[in-house]
Write a structure and sequence with these properties.
Structural class: alpha+beta
Shape: globular
Order of helices and strands: HHEEEEEEHEEEE
Radius of gyration: 20 Å
Number of strands: 10
Strand content: 25-35%
Number of helices: 3
Amino acid sequence: MRAHHGRAAAALAVTAVIAGGGLAAGVSDAASTSATLRAAPARAHATPPDVTVLFGRALSKARASRRPLFAKAVVYEADGSTANGRPTRSARGITVWRFVFDNYPSHSRFASATLTYRWPAGRFGRVVGIKPPFLEDYVIRSAPKMTLATAVKRLRHAGYRQSFRFVTLRRPVGPRRVAALYLFGLSSGHYVAVNTVTGKVSPFGR
């Protein structure tokens, strides 16, 4: 098993904040309150950005860290999970993405690094350097064209109806090189892969 590769979802509380209270003191206050109430439904129905969108942002943030410890980092994999480990049946339920980097090309004291994005906070945390390397993956040079939502549709069309708590975008080391895969951890305990190039759906690891 790969070092440091946790599968448990990070806890994430989803809260809605609605401003208000008191009588409007004037036209500007009334307009402000009205705008806030109009914006609330939009936030409630907003969806987290796809991993294909976050991919480039994560890479740029890692490479632009204050000290150039990760200047040449490249993506190994991206681990997506649900809030509080709750099962989901759609791509919208994946609200946390942890990007894992191969940092060997940077020649710093950290062989690898991680960077986590959380929704609905809508921002990345800090880059965390890790001395040991991550193993069993090939580098993913660029974001796949297939979105997570499309991968979920492929999964359903192939007859897999179960919910899932996490999904990983990775290129596992094997007898032959393959394109990046969306690897779903189903509630049944099985793993199913969706090839981001061919769209082929197949059991993984069993």
